[in-house]
């Protein structure tokens, strides 16, 4: 039972355009949502997070939007750069009894074409 | 500053053997978590340790165990290896819960069971 779903395995975008990566979740108890970027042979790198009480968080070229009623979040990258080509993971945190577990989606491979 | 370091980077084991993976967190980080990433999937939570105590355990069999040492480094042990244990094992550290600033991941240990 996948609690965090990334339904697009891959996405291709032209350099300079907007990349939109989508994520859906089923567990309404998630407290925070995070996006990670992963290059081959490296561990995931934290990009940006958003609290479940917010609907938008922005950091430079990266913006995350959260729609709680739809249980949907998205990551916008503007403008997209070739160096953004990587696998992007959506993750969610549940906190309880002092434990913080990340639940990941399967990832979306973003290719930014020069 | 050193990031999260994991050792070894790669290893090959035979079914039924035991393996120990090691992780050193970022200096000052007191929480260490372990994740398993099978090819084509997102990382899956195995354990979290904070201040040397187990704070969370994912849905993994008892063949998986871990511990955290006084210097906050950690070991993941897997007994009676199965072919299905072949995966990238990721260690992540954080100051505390990791919700706002995210977890910092190491590059992982690639385990192949033959």
Describe the structure.
- The complex is a heterodimer of chains A (114) and B (114).
- Chain A has 114 residues and is mostly beta strands.
- Chain A has a single domain, classed as Immunoglobulin-like, CATH 2.60.40.
- Chain A is built from no helices and 11 strands.
- Chain A has strands at 4-5, 10-14, 19-25, 32-38, 45-51, 56-59, 62-67, 72-77, 86-96, 99-104, 108-113.
- In chain A, a hairpin with a 4-residue loop joins strand 7 (62-67) and strand 8 (72-77).
- Chain A is globular.
- The termini of chain A are far apart.
- The mean pLDDT of chain A is 93.
- With 114 residues, chain B is an all-beta fold.
- Chain B has strands spanning 5-7, 10-13, 19-24, 31-37, 44-50, 53-57, 64-68, 74-78, 87-94, 104-105, 109-113.
- In chain B, strands 2, 4, 5, 6, 9, 10 and 11 form a 7-stranded mixed β-sheet that branches. A 4-stranded antiparallel β-sheet of chain B has the order 1-3-8-7, with no helix packed on it.
- The N and C termini of chain B lie far apart (36 Å).
- The interface between A and B is medium-sized, with 30 and 30 residues.
Provide a brief overview of the structure.
The complex is a heterodimer of chains A (114) and B (114). Chain A has strands at residues 4-5, 10-14, 19-25, 32-38, 45-51, 56-59, 62-67, 72-77, 86-96, 99-104, 108-113.
């Amino acid at each position: 039972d996948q609690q965090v779903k990334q339904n697009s395995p891959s996405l291709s975008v032209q350099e300079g355009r907007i990349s939109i990566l989508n994520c859906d979740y089923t567990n309404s108890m998630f407290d925070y949502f995070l996006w990670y970027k992963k290059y081959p042979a490296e561990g995931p790198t934290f990009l940006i997070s958003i609290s479940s009480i917010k609907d938008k968080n922005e950091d430079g070229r990266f913006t995350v939007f959260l729609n709680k009623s739809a249980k949907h979040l998205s990551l916008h990258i503007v403008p997209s750069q070739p160096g953004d080509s990587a696998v992007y993971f959506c993750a969610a945190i549940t906190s309880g009894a002092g434990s913080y577990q990340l639940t990941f989606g399967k990832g979306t491979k973003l290719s930014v074409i020069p | 500053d050193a990031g999260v370091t994991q050792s070894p980077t790669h290893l090959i084991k035979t079914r039924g053997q035991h393996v120990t993976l090691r992780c050193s967190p970022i200096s000052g980080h007191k929480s260490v978590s372990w994740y398993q990433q099978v090819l084509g999937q997102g990382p899956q939570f195995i354990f979290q340790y904070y201040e040397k105590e187990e704070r969370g355990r994912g849905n993994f069999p008892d063949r998986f165990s871990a511990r955290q040492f006084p210097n906050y480094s950690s070991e993941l042990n897997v007994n009676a290896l199965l072919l299905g244990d072949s995966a990238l094992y990721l260690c992540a550290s954080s100051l505390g819960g990791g919700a706002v600033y995210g977890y910092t991941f190491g590059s992982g240990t690639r385990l192949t069971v033959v």
